[in-house]
C-alpha cells in the first residue's frame, strides 16, 4: 500500500497494482482503534489550470491531486488566472475552480480574495510556486504547503530582461523562503529538493512526491515506418526546441524520411517556425499545435524517440507518457528532474554537453533499432511504477503533516483544539484520498 515519505525523504512511485483508494492508515490495517477523520477545506493556488492555453504538466499534477481529495469528500477549491477557455467559476470533477486575474495579476488577486473570504475559509492552502510565490501566509492563518516543480534560476534571464529577471530571482530565491519559513514543501524530484535546500529551505520540511502517469489508452497506431522525432510541450524559449530543429538539419542526410512533430503551442511558436525555415527543415517539421488527449497519444505512439531539450524541468511528465508507449527519450542531464525521469542507458539517453551531443544521442537511437527497442521496453516497464493514486496519497500525507504541525503549535501556545475552527485539526485525525480520475486533456509539459 502506498504511503507518503517522511519529510526529507524521497517518495518513490509504486506499482499500479497498489490499492487505489487510500483510506486505511497503518493502524487500520493492524485492526487497532481508529482516530476520527476530518473533512478539510482545501485551497490550491496555481497560476494556471489545465484548460488554460499554456497549461502544462504542473497543472495536470495539481488537478490530479485535487480531484482525488475532492472525491474523498474534502471541499476543494482551485484558484487560478482567468482566460478565455474557462468560466469565472465552475465545478469540474468535484473541484470548485475560481478564475480571476491576469498572468501576473493572479498573485495579488489571490491574496485579496483569500483575505476577503471569497475563496472560503480553508483549513490548508497549497501554494504552487512557479517562480513567483503566492505568499498565502500573508493572508491566512491556515497552514500552507508549497508545491515546487523546479527552481527557475536559469530561466529568468532567458524569458525576461536583466531588470525583471533580477526581480524575479529575488522573489523566488530570497523573498519566498522567508515568507514560507514555517511551511512544508513538496518537491516533485530530488533535484528540486536539493535546489530548495540551496535556497535555505530546511531539508526536513521538504517531501519529494513524484508525478504519476496514467496507463496509455489503446491506439490503432504504432511507430511510423520512417524515423519520427517527437517534441511535446509548451513552445517557450526555455524549452529550447531549436536544438531539435538543428539536429533535424544534421540528421536528414542519413535519414531521408525523417520527420519531426512539434506538439504544443505557445508564444514562441512563430519564432520556431522562422528558425525551421532558416535551417531549411520546414519541409520535414510539422508544427501540430494544441491537441486533445486522443491525438496526443497518437503522436506518442507514432514516435521513434522523444526529444526533451529543455533548459530545466522539475520532472518531465512527457518522458513517462512517452515511456508508456515504449518510446525512449533524450534529454539534458543538467536539466534538473529530467535526470530522474530518464534513466540513462536504460530508458533513454542523458546528454552531457550541448547541441552536437544532443544530435549525436538522437542519431544513436534513430540508427539502432535494437537499442531503441531495448530502451523502449525498459521505459514502458518503468512507467508502470508511477501512478497518480500514489502521488495523491503521498500528497495527502504531507497535508496531514501540515495540519498536525499547526495542532502541535496551538497546543504549545495553550489554544483549545476543537476540530472545527479554521486551521485547527483535532489530535490524530488523518486525511483521506480517493483514486484520481483520468488526467485532464493536456498536451504540455510542466515548467
Describe what this molecule looks like in 3D.
The protein is an alpha/beta fold. It is built from 14 helices and 15 strands. The strands form 2 sheets. A 9-stranded mixed beta sheet has the order 1-9-8-7-6-2-3-5-4, sandwiched between helices. Strands 12-11-10-13-14-15 form a 6-stranded parallel beta sheet, sandwiched between helices. α2 (57-71) packs across α14 (388-412). The longest helix has 25 residues, at 388-412. The protein is globular, with a radius of gyration of 22 Å.
Low-pLDDT stretches? 1-36, 416-429, 440-446
Shape: globular
Give the strand order of the largest sheet, numbering strands 1, 2, ... along the chain: 1-9-8-7-6-2-3-5-4
Radius of gyration: 22 Å
Helix/strand-derived category reads: alpha/beta
Number of strands: 15
Number of DSSP helices? 14
How far from one another are the termini?
30 Å
Average pLDDT metric: 86
Brief characterization of the structure:
This protein is α/β, with parallel strands linked by helices and 447 residues long.
Topology at a glance:
Layout: E1 10-11, H1 26-30, E2 41-45, H2 57-71, E3 75-80, E4 89-92, E5 95-99, H3 106-116, E6 124-129, E7 144-148, H4 156-159, H5 162-179, E8 184-187, H6 190-198, E9 206-209, E10 228-232, H7 242-251, E11 259-263, H8 269-279, E12 285-289, H9 293-302, E13 305-308, H10 317-323, E14 329-332, H11 338-341, E15 348-351, H12 355-366, H13 369-383, H14 388-412
Parallel strand pairs: 1-9, 2-3, 2-6, 3-5, 6-7, 7-8, 8-9, 10-11, 10-13, 11-12, 13-14, 14-15
Antiparallel strand pairs: 4-5
Helix pairs in contact: 2-14, 7-8, 7-12, 10-13
